[in-house]
């Protein structure tokens, strides 16, 4: 058993949990820090699977809400609409992901693509937040969302297939641009992560499970648990943060982080292409 390898899995699990729900791209961070730590998994399954650990933190945090949905689906119009909205928002990225996941992993899972997406996304967040400050949201609560609203968020989520874009960033900003209030867009992004990551994890695990060794499975377990614990911390902190502030600090973080990666690549300080 390689203790150093397990330490790397623990570190990446913590990074995943802390970044999954922030608009800074958890996948992008895993790619960059995975390269820095020289940690690479079969078919990128580790990076996908541990995201489910972070997402289950949302299920735990909103356990009463999810329990209410399970017990009232089919019997309560508001619950039925909530489930329908999740299904509608889930479909666009799921279809595009199934069609192009192989090409995306082959050509875009690299630090340079991530850095570019981080910077572009940061600039978009700055623009959307500035625009948001002069407009009144049309949808104040997740419960008030219509299927049309959910579809727009689902279409925005397609952008998250590009590593470095951020799933939460694309859905939250897409929702805000469409007219969702900041907290409503954030919470819907949380809820939408559950079916998305469950589907992505099981798809990748089933596709690659024959290539797994016992050590691979153990590494996923370590990363999974670390991501769950860190995810709980991140969810609580983000909800508290957005109660009084906006996403501008995260935009600047993306721009600086992406800029550092590109700068070290252009100057030759770090040969990202060889990682």
The helix-and-strand class reads mainly alpha
Span of the ends, CA to CA: 24 Å
Subunit arrangement of the protein: single chain
Shape call: globular
What profile does the largest beta sheet have? none
Number of strand segments: 0
Nearest-integer average pLDDT = 91
Order of helices and strands: HHHHHHHHHHH
Range of strand content: under 5%
Q: Helix coverage percent of residues?
A: over 70%
In the predicted model, the low-confidence regions spanning at least 5 consecutive residues are none
From the alpha carbons, calculate the radius of gyration and give it in angstroms. 18 Å
Helix segment tally = 11
InterPro entries: UppP
Function: Catalyzes the dephosphorylation of undecaprenyl diphosphate (UPP). Confers resistance to bacitracin.
Family: Belongs to the UppP family.
Pfam family, one: BacA
What is the gist of this entry?
The chain has 275 residues and is mainly α. It has helices at 3-19, 26-36, 45-61, 63-72, 77-108, 111-132, 147-157, 167-178, 182-208, 214-242, 248-266.
What topology does this entry show?
Layout: H1 3-19, H2 26-36, H3 45-61, H4 63-72, H5 77-108, H6 111-132, H7 147-157, H8 167-178, H9 182-208, H10 214-242, H11 248-266
Helix pairs in contact: 1-2, 1-3, 1-10, 2-6, 3-9, 3-10, 5-7, 5-9, 6-8, 6-11, 7-8, 8-9
Protein name: Undecaprenyl-diphosphatase
Pfam families: BacA
Organism: Paralysiella testudinis
